[in-house]
Amino acid sequence: MDNKKVCWLAWHIILAGQARRFWEIMNRFGDPVKAWYAPDNEFGTASGLLAGYRNETLERRRNTNLNQVAAFLDSSNKETSLLFYTDADYPEQLKNIFDPPPVLYLRGNRSSLRDVPVALVGSRRATPYGLSVAENLARDLAAASVGVVSGMARGIDTAAHRGAIKGGGRTVAVLGCGVDVVYPRENARLVDEIAITGAVISEFPPGSQPEPWHFPVRNRVISGLSRIVVVVEATEKSGALITANVALEQGRDVMAVPGQITAPYSRGPNNLIKQGAAVVLGAGDIMAELGMGVLFAPHANDNSGHLKMNEDEVLLSRLIEYEPVSVEMLVQKTGLPAGQVLTALMFLEMKGLIKQMPGRLYTKT
């Protein structure tokens, strides 16, 4: 068993939901093993490290058995897997936020995390209008092969996940509890459906209950995975607005669905629009913001009516047939860097020329 990975997981477990403290320790010691076996007084010499939480953290370290952590790591399976920050398939978009989760617990298809450009969020106590809008937006985005991420809460989140499934696409649910804890309980079947084609993830270890402080922490992962955060319905003090604010701090775009000016659940998105957020009147507005409108516009075609493709896309389109082929094989055959191949695949998928299958396999449409 990789001792470095065991210590990494051990630190993550005792600091679950406290990624900033985890990264402070890694920046201080440079290695999870060195940090784990460092004398207590070395933590005190680090300026500002862990502040008033130092003693509590060290006590947790003393009470954590690495053999048990190693056994837990060894027992992870296909149903609940672990995705480390250092793994090659950890989502690049999430790596770029200030405090990415050191470890993600996952049910479903880990390749689904690679590209989920749109987050749909909103109130738990949504109106029929908001629920309908969220579901329809997610359905239309999914039908256009645009991945959707949300938080599995009641209301807008649940409607977004259901819509994406109805659209035949991928959706990712980010939980404020363990991936083995169903919350809200009525979403048990939905969780299973999401895990079939998408993913259910959490940075909280299995068994973690949905504590109130978990959800603001969870929100930064929702926005971190996405490129655009769309607020459908929210009161002026809604958690969805926290997600929108975090998204802006992370450099993501924020869009909002307008509503009646007298409706409490429209005040949040209406205020965002007033402050400069782009208006969403349909899935086409979101896709245009992603650049997909340009891809499918008439001027994106050549004289023969075919979609324009750059050299990488042409090369890959010739290699991808109806027999599924892996990203690794395409990298090997083209000699191109993996990141370059993944970018070209994303645009070919947007143009409807290929489709992604489970297991990071691609086939011609």
Task: Walk me through this protein's architecture.
There is one protein chain. The protein has 365 residues and is of the alpha/beta class. The protein has 3 domains: 75 residues; 181 residues, Rossmann fold; 67 residues, Winged helix-like DNA-binding domain superfamily/Winged helix DNA-binding domain (Arc Repressor Mutant, subunit A), CATH 1.10.10.10. Helix content is 46%, strand content 12%. The chain has 18 helices and 12 strands. The chain has a 9-stranded mixed sheet with strand order 1-2-6-5-4-3-7-8-9, with helices on both faces. Strands 10-12-11 form a 3-stranded antiparallel sheet. The longest helix is centred in the middle third of the chain and has 16 residues. About 3% of the residues have low confidence.
What's the architecture of the largest domain in CATH terms? 3-Layer(aba) Sandwich
Runs with pLDDT <50, length 5+? Answer: 294-305
Number of helices: 18
CATH fold node name of the largest domain: Rossmann fold
Basic shape:
globular
Q: Level of helix content?
A: 40-55%
Our count of domains comes out at 3
| Strand count | 12
Q: Which CATH class of the largest domain is shown?
A: Alpha Beta
Strand content: 5-15%
Order of strands in the sheet with the most strands? Answer: 1-2-6-5-4-3-7-8-9
Q: Could you list some keywords that capture this structure?
A:
single chain; 365 residues; alpha/beta; Rossmann fold; Arc Repressor Mutant, subunit A; 3 domains; nine-stranded mixed β-sheet; 12 strands; globular
